[in-house]
Amino acid sequence: MHRLRRAGPRPRRRRPAAIAGGAAMRVCIYGAGAIGGHLAARLAHAGAEVAIVGRGANLAAIRERGLRLEAPDLTVDVHPTATDDPATLGPQDAVIVAVKAPALASIAPLLPALLRPETPVVFAMNGIPWWYFHAHGGPLDGRRIAALDPGGALWDGVGPQRAAAGVVYAATTVTAPGVVRVENPKSRLILGEPDGSESARLVALARLFEAAGLAAPVSRRVRDDIWTKLLLNLATGPLCTLAGVGQSAIAAVPGVRAAMLRVLQEGEAIARALGRDIRVDAEAIVTGAGKLAHKPSILQDYELGRPMEIDALLTVPLALAGEAGVAAPTLALVAGLLSLRAQAAGLYTPAA
Ligand SMILES: NC(=O)C1=CN([C@@H]2O[C@H](COP(=O)(O)OP(=O)(O)OC[C@H]3O[C@@H](n4cnc5c(N)ncnc54)[C@H](OP(=O)(O)O)[C@@H]3O)[C@@H](O)[C@H]2O)C=CC1
Ligand SMILES: CC(C)(CO)C(=O)C(=O)O
Question: Which residues form the Ketopantoate reductase N-terminal domain (predicted)?
Fold first, then answer.
């Protein structure tokens, strides 16, 4: 039994989605930190068959005491299957990867043990994904991004045809091993296929998350969603990390707020030059970000001495801006400073 403590009125317990044949959908969450822990806890609480691949102190705590989610709408302790060896879990109906981008190369060889020929792999991560140009169409179709998939381990070993996007809106922190706190009241996981189809595999997964109390729309234009989310990361992550404070603190300083607005405008121009149909309300985004004390995950990484997602969040978007002939001087400045700081801390090595 899960121990429950809920904030607010008791939500209706929904039945988990089922796959063809009536069996419960087996989902593996690879990487049980802030985002993976949040997703796994909701699924487990809703009764889905969820297993976690984790490591270290976090895994030890989940095995010993279970996983605790503290979200505005739900506080719950769950006890999902948790392991450091994906081979012990066997093939899944869906895999959700929620590690930081620099960890992808090391997990790539271990993912196939979780896969049947039809198993989708959702990368619930920030930034430009390694598969971005798969099914993109146009002259860039099928282009690989070496900085995000060194040696092609994911493209060749997992395959872009399995890949799907997971765009996460949830300001989340691991506050202690096995304990995940979500700050914003309305979390969201936008799912999307690279080819824009509303596939049965994502619709089934979306139903599962919706049943678990997490909004999970399936987007037909998920690259637009990837960029819209990335703009928020660009406006918050680097400046918070340079200042060593959370979002509300930077947004309260007029000069920094102005830089956040400029970064959003530059990011939007890059996205539009790449064909994305997005138009953001920069003022509203900065105001919204400034309401949360949240330390962006890239700052969390810096403070905890973990490899930082500089390539997926900054280097690759800036390289794409350069190719598209879009000037992004403010973004280049904050990215350059952050890169230097990350290199000095031994948390990032630029590609040669
Ligand atoms: N936190 C947030 O608010 C948000 C984060 N995101 C994005 O979501 C993605 C995940 O971020 P987040 O959850 O914050 O990151 P965390 O660092 O909190 O979680 C990642 C987890 O993966 C584990 N991990 C890394 N490598 C392996 C491995 N080889 N085997 C097993 N487990 C492994 C890490 O273990 P260890 O701790 O030992 O490194 C950690 O527990 C990132 O792309 C991030 O940018 C998106 C929206 C919001
Ligand atoms: C919550 C948000 C948007 C903060 O920048 C994020 O994605 C992160 O922490 O990485």
Answer: 27-192
